[in-house]
Design a protein that fits this description.
With 343 residues, the protein is of the alpha/beta class. The chain is built from eleven helices and twelve strands. Helix 1 packs across helix 2, helix 1 crosses helix 3 and helix 5 crosses helix 11.
Length: 343
């Protein structure tokens, strides 16, 4: 037989107090009640497995104490797996610390499917939106009354909260390091530009290269999305034939970095003397030895939840917009460049 839910009336009856007193104690309200009475109420509520009715609680406080979470991954799950899991995990942990639940909305189809009014049904007090695929924000967002926190996307309306990484500083640290190692020409390996974070890293690289007066003749962009019929091994052979290698390959994802290192070794290249490789993210396993830019996903998740609650409580959006710093770790895959001819 299923056990019936314990009501607040039963807790009050067992404690010998009013329902109002039980409600105020369980909601940690500041009322005049003896310490022993407070402790008795809390113990009885725990012993009876009392769980407050979330719907009634929301109606009483005019808040659901729930944060919505929506992301549009599309078909690019290859790049996302552990990245999404870690971000979601840390958002959920911090939301719980702030006494909020996290509601994961069902997937939405289509590039233009996301509309803010779709989330104004009262189930959540605010929405964390992660446009994994690059998203053009419509005028709808400028009129929305639902607090919205956008993560990992920097080009958004001013009335929304924003949290992203400082990819520009990451690009600058990479290029400064490789220049110090003696490199003057670079291969930039990227993935599908519909993925927001890959697009932003490429944009940051191009901007920093221009600021550092690195000409377009000094770098070559390899986009895996335009190389369906070529493996990384084929790409390395082509780079050797065209004179871009020996040299440095800057990868905007660790998956590419691992591939270039493995195939480079298979082709007899020395790492890092012939082929220097830089990775990005530091999320997947097996990249500890790679020179790479590392993203702090724990801080991203926790600050996103904190900003979301601040927006719900009325904080102005301009106080909830930040670029988080990145970390640059030098590993065994970069070093002094030694020019030599490779047959």
């Amino acid at each position: 037989m299923k056990r019936k839910n314990t009501t607040i009336q039963k807790v009050a009856e067992a404690a010998g107090v009013s329902v109002t007193t039980v409600s105020q104690v369980l909601n940690n309200r500041k009322i005049r009640v003896r310490d022993e009475t407070r402790e008795r109420i809390l113990k009885i509520a725990a012993d009876l497995h009392y769980i407050p009715n979330a719907l009634i609680r929301a109606l009483q406080r005019k808040k659901s104490f729930t944060i919505g979470f929506e992301f549009n991954a599309g078909e690019f799950d290859f790049f996302h797996g552990s990245f999404i899991e870690r971000v979601f995990y840390h958002i959920r942990l911090e939301a719980a610390e702030l006494d909020y639940d996290l509601l994961l909305y069902k997937p939405m189809k289509g590039k233009a499917a996301f509309k803010p009014y779709q989330f104004m049904d009262g189930r959540s007090d605010g929405l964390i939106f992660w446009p994994i695929r690059y998203y053009e924000f419509t005028p709808d967002f400028e009129e929305v009354y639902l607090p919205i926190m956008v993560i990992l996307h920097d080009n958004i309306p001013e009335n929304l909260g924003m949290l992203d990484f400082d990819y520009k500083s990451g690009a600058k640290m990479i290029l400064e390091h490789l220049l110090q190692c003696g490199h003057s020409r670079f291969v930039y390996a990227t993935g599908a530009q519909e993925i927001t974070r890959l697009y932003e890293r490429r944009t940051a690289f191009l901007g920093v290269a221009s600021e550092m007066e690195i000409s377009e003749e000094q770098y070559f962009i390899w986009d895996s999305a335009n190389s369906d019929n070529f493996t990384i091994r084929d790409i390395i052979k082509n780079l050797l034939r065209t004179g871009w290698l020996p040299g440095a390959v800057i990868c905007n994802h660790d998956i590419f970095a691992k591939g270039f290192i493995e195939e480079g070794k298979n082709l007899g290249l020395r790492i890092p003397e012939d082929l220097a490789v830089v990775g990005y993210e530091g999320v997947i396993s097996g990249v500890e030895h790679i020179t790479r830019v590392v993203l702090d996903l724990k801080t991203l998740g926790r600050v996103a939840a904190q900003y979301m609650v601040r927006l719900i409580e009325g904080e102005p959006s301009h106080n909830c917009r930040t670029l988080l710093p990145v970390q640059f770790l030098i590993g065994a895959t970069t070093g002094k460049f030694q020019q030599r001819k490779i047959k």
